[in-house]
Amino acid sequence: VVVGFELWAAMTAFLGGACLAVLWHRYIVGNIEPAAIAVVALRGRVLAYLGWGLLSFFLLILSMLPAAGLLALTDDALSGFILPFMPVVALIALVPFFRYVLILPAAALGHPVKLRSVSYATRGNAEVLAFGTYFAALPSFLIMFLIDPTQANDRLAATVLTTAGNLVHTVAGMPIVTFLSLAYLHFAEAIRDAAARDDEIASGTGG
Asked: Which pTM does this prediction carry?
């Protein structure tokens, strides 16, 4: 029962976080104030946001594979030396991934933007986007360290800590959503131009 509740709490937090993110993106980028039934009316946008979020997570995992492979191929002595530096290596390996994350605000607003358009428009800015996201994620990382369910004395306490952590973690993640929204506003014209360019190429009218 406890395991089932933990899974339910995690899924609820995941879906609730996506709903909040969609509403917050729309408010910052489009100045669209959320109505009482906004989440129901925007269920298609939320599902699209979840889909792009899962794809972004998949790209994130792919970007970490080289570092993980390097660690797996080393012997125990060398692994013990490399392991303390792995968080830094992972953060560096993730930098190219951040060229794609602005697809999330686009999905929240229902803009017909392709991943290729976002990647083209943000070329040369992966480091800036990564640094901004890392900085905005500091509150969320801090919560992860402060609320540790593995330190609980029993399963029920662990479940309570997990639920509280999910709730606080979701709220603490809003600075990330804010940064991505502002970054999307900054690159909006370049993304639109890239999307128009892709449409012209697809239709055979572009160069």
From this structure: 0.73
